[in-house]
Every structure is written in structure tokens, then in C-alpha cells.
Amino acid sequence: MIREYLKEHILITDGAMGTYYDRKKSENGRIAEEANLLEPELITRIHEEYLEQGARLIRTNTFAANHAMALGRGVRDRREQDAYVKHVIRAAWKLAQKAAENRPEEIFVAADIGPAAENLFSEYETDPAAEYRFLADCFLECGAQIFNFETFSDIKYVAKTARYIKEKCPEAFVMVSFAANRNGYTTQGISISRLFAEAAQTPEIDSYGCNCLLGAAHMYKLIKAQNLAGDKFIQVLPNSGYQQIVRGQAGHADGVHYFADKMEQMVELGVNIIGGCCGTTPKHIRMLCEKLAGKAPYEKLPVVEKGGEDAVSQTRNNPFMAKLQRGEKVIAVELDPPFNQDAQKLMEGAFQLKQSGVDIITIADSPLARARADSVLLAAKVSAMVDIPVMPHIACRDRNRISMHSTLLGAHINGIRNLMIVTGDPVPSGERDNTKSVFDFNSIRFMEYVKELNQEIFLQDAFSYGGALNQNQANEDQVMKRMQKKIDAGLSWFMTQPIYSDEEVEKLGRMKQELNTKILCGIMPLVSYRNAMFIKNEMPGIQVPDEIVAQYRPDMSRAEAEDVAVRISLSIMEKLEEVADGFYFMTPFNRVSLITRIIHARKPQ
């Protein structure tokens, strides 16, 4: 029925439930979904108000009806949570159906599902789609045939659930809308262009589009830039405007006429389904109905496909990446940024390393969560003054998405083309009251974000990026699964923890053979007996065998200990010859001269 209606009409949905409920409710701290049980008359009345103003599709009051809601209400037992969520959904369905019955025109009721599992599960958990299957089953038991997944930042679980729904109810109509910022990226760092393309290629999805986060004007610009071609229906439900605080209360702009004008322009792009999200009210829906009365759907504008010259290039201004891709061994050396404002030692070290033929200098990002000079700013300085490729480490610990995006733009402007992306060491527990971690991304999600930016912004001069590999973790299969996720996210090389044992060499050989990836093997010279004991006993993720420590003595001179360090490093490098695509030197105590000595002593290959 809804498919037939959409062939001839623009379908106007309701507006916001949550923010409109907040306007009407007493100060009871209650969320809208809870009101399905405690204030059913009010929820029914809100549905009726939207219908009276011309909406032809209403969404059940269930955006946040999931196990997280049950947990938030103090329900701990899983079976009791299941029962509670089912109770809320059934009540919401009945209220929407009650509002829709006995109307002169056909009314569509959509089962509304918000992004529950994104908040309930981590990347290491089992299939998060189980949460969505449970919610879908609740609605299917109620008789739902229209499903609306809204405010999503990824399509993965929606696509799985859509297939599940269609298997159980082939005639179901599945709608999905994504929430993106003005730049066209979701909170997962995925571009709307990519999500639209994937939705268009997913047979079980009938309609896709955007909702929330943006007002009508910015959403219009975003939709206008997308490829809407194909036989899918397009839906758009923007906010009434941007949130503002008035007398301590959050609210949204209320420009009803402006909103309707922009939505009329939206329809001219070929949008089939329109309505409102946060801040919209029955007034907005009435104005939409007046503006669009009698209008048929517009044809989608054709999109000119980009030519092959726009293929992502990662070697255009990147001699390090070009050398790595040619199969030549590369040498990367890490320099530690200073704790103070004096970067003289680092700069002198960079000049020495360039003269020794090093391919790239890497700069750590406040390792062990101790504040140091900014890695990207220092890398830009080294690049400009020493004229050598640089690779700043970027940790996800300290920056939110806005800051990460800005950092990437600034890095690219300053000629940086190589990045080392890491999740970042956690803030020590004793400092967490005063220092907060951010972690909007982990390393994999940030890699996916950079991959998106490479395809959208840096198309012909893209970033290349590597990631960390801890070969000493116990579960080798789990390590390789995580490595594969990073490769899928666009990673070009791995940089390992320092290597000291034959066992590690063999393990890296297996990983390289299995995954066919580039590996830069970590070499960290141990400069004294004390240093060897410290690394062996206190540094997580690094294994120093007893036979390595035994080569040092507590009474060794600096020169004697460095001789041992050179000998051990060269021996390890020789063992890694068939495995390593290059070597990644970690400089102990800024002893750049020791690193250059090892580089010069290495036999020509």
C-alpha cells in the first residue's frame, strides 16, 4: 500500500515526538517512551495532532525502546528486560494504531527503531544485530509492516536486520535514515555518500535518507550533493533548526515558514518522504502540507559520474609510500617530542637521521598519556626545516571528532601525507579525576574516517597511514582478526612492538603470510643492563628474553653496552630479513647516534 501511495504522492510524516513531548509534559524527568505506559492519553493525543495537521505516516513512540532503556529504569534481569521492552513496544503500537483508526484517509504506521546496539556493544562483542532482531520481532508480533530505522551512523546492522525482517515478512517496507554533520559525516566517521551508495545497493531497504543533527538548509545542501539515482525512495526529516538554551531550557528554532520553504526545495531534488525531527511540531507539518498540496513526486536529477582521473592516489607527494609499494625496504625512526618548549635536540636528531639515509621520521603522540609537544605540529616543523618525510602519531585519546578533522586538515596543508594511527595509552587511574580521555574514535574507526576523507576530500593526494601491531598478545587469531579490520579500513603498513626473540620472528612471518600486508619491524636497542631490566619487567606489550638480558652486565660502560645493543639489533634485523618490509627504530634516550651507527653497520641487502 505504501509503495503504491509513493508512486503518485509526496508522503508527509509526523514531526518530533521526544522534543514535542518535552514541551507538553510536567517536570517529572520522564522520557517519552516511558510515557507509553504512564501517560498513554498524552502520547495518543500527540499522534492525533500530527494526523489532524495532515501527516499520513506516524512513527511509534519507540525510538529509545530497547534494553538500554530497561537498564536505565533499573531492570537488571535479562528476562525482565525483555518483558519490559516488549511491554513498551506493544503499548506504543496500540497507541499509534488507536490514533490512526477511523480516519477518512489511509494512514501508515511505522515501527520506529533507534540506534540501540551502537551504544550497547563494543567492537569485540558478539553480534550486536541480536538487539535489532529482538526489536524487529517485537514489532512483527504486533503486526507491523513498515519499519523506520532512524538517526543511524552506520548501515551494517540495519542491513542485517532488514534482511531478517524481509525473511519473516516479505511485504515489509524498510526505511532507514542516517544522521550526519554539516560536512556529511556520521559519528562513526562514515560519509553520507558511502552510506547512501550502500543503501541503494541493499535490496531489502526500500527507502533511505537523512534525519536529525541538521536544520533544513544544511540538510538541503547535503542531500543536493548526493547521488540519488535509482529506484529507491528518498526520505528527509531535518530538525527545525539548531538547539539553543533559553532560561536554562534546551529548545530549537521555530521558523515554521522558513522550514517549509526549504523542504519544498528538498522535494524538487526528488525526495519522496518528508517530515520533521527534533524541534518540529504539528505547526511544521501543517505548513508542509499546505506547501505541497497536490504535488506529485519530482524526477531525481541525473548525476555525472566522476572519471578515473579522480582515483585515490597515495604516492603523488609521498616518496616513503612509493618506496614501500615498490617493495624496497624502508627505514623509519621514532623521535620523542620534548616535555618542554625546547625542540633543539629533536631537530638536531632529525638532521642526523636525514644524512644517514633514513626514509621517514615518526613522532609519538604523548606516549603513556604524559603530555609532550604536539606530534603533528612538531612533524610539520621537521618537514619544513629538515626536508624529510614525517609520520606523526595520532592518538584517539585526547581529541574529539571536530579536533581530529581539524588536525587532519592542518596536517595536509603542511605537507604531511603519512600518519601512524593509534588508539592511545589510557590516562593513569590516579589522574582520571582531573584528566578525561575522549576516545570518540578507536584506531580502527579513525582509520575508516581517514579513508572516507581520502575519498571525499584528499582524493588525488591522499593520506597513507599505518597502525600498531602487538605481536606479543596471547591470542594470535584475535590479533590477526584485528589486523584484518585495520587493513579493511585502509591501513597500508603495520609497525610492531620491539622484537627480541626468535618466537616473535616466526609469529610475524605467519601473520605476514596469512594477511599479505606490509610490516615495519620494531627495533629498540637496549642501552644498559638497567634499561634491559626495566623494559623486560615494566613495559607492557614488550617481551625481552633472559638470553638478551644476559648479554649485559650492571658494571658495563656506556660504550660497551652500546656495542652489545648494536650487535643484538643487527642480529635481529638479519633474522627478520624475509619478514620485514622495513624497520622501525625506537630511539632510546634520544641517542640518535646509536641508531645511525646501526643503520650504517647493517650489511647492504
TrEMBL record:
Pathway: One-carbon metabolism; tetrahydrofolate interconversion. Zn(2+) binds at C212, C277, C278. The keyword Oxidoreductase applies. Pfam families: MTHFR, S-methyl_trans. Residues 1-292 form the Hcy-binding domain. One of its GO terms (biological process) is tetrahydrofolate interconversion. Coiled coil: none annotated. Its EC number is 1.5.1.20, 2.1.1.10. PROSITE patterns: HCY. This is Homocysteine S-methyltransferase. The gene is mmuM.
